[in-house]
Specification:
The protein has 298 residues and is mostly helical. It has 13 helices and 2 strands. It is found in: Membrane.
Length: 298
Amino acid sequence: MSWYPSLAGESCVSHNDAGFAFENIPCLYPNTLGKTYFAFEINYDPVSLRDKMSDNPWIPMVGIVLYAVGIIGGKKYFESRPAWNWRRSMAMWNLGLSVFSTIGFLRTFPQLMHNLLNYTLTENLCHDPESQYGSGATGFWVQMFCLSKFPELLDTFFIVIHKKPLIFLHWYHHISVLLYCWHAYTTKAPGGIFFSTMNYAVHAIMYFYYFLMAVKMKPKWFNSMWITVSQISQMVVGVAVTILGFILAPKFEKECALKSENNVAALVMYGSYLLLFLQFFVARYLSRPAKKSTKKQD
């Protein structure tokens, strides 16, 4: 349980409140990454909040119930009322999420690369994340990633008040990712660093695109199709990581921290996302031109 890498020597080894040994990424690279971190990140200990999350699995359930009630009630309210114009607030909201996601990516990506370059894929998918990436500076941003799925539910608020179409993919994604992230984090899923880093990267671009759309400053070359492509790529990698988990876990010499129930949930989630995003891509970017060409021929 006290596994930790030994590349930087014991000078970089710390222990979190649960007694797990870990190396803090700023200490591993003091002359580069280390200079960019704040003290609160380096000294952050996620154990107390993580334990509270583990002891209260009802919180995400209440969150999605309130989310569903808000959608149903909001759509009912606006049936006979004009849409609100909160374009400026929506722009600032999207910009804020883009900045947050960019910082999150810049904090988790170095840890992911460090792990991939120095440890086998089996070790990355089996070692306890509390020692590998779930503590210290990276641990803070992984924890914030999971908790950010609550405020991200407000994306739907702007759709409802502006009376825009609310597709199944949108609300299904918000509900399922919230439930999965909470479960994966509290059960310490080793693959979390892959998922959080990818999601941070895609969201950084996606929300910035939404911001530019809201303020009507989107350049012509910034095609929304590439955002969908990045989302599909994320789902492909997600499916691949979960499948590799099933293959590599039995080969691990020690007890693998990967739990089958969480990995099954990840496969179902990413697999369904992949199908839905592919369907969305075909309907939005491939079907419409075909229809136009058909009309011209008629």
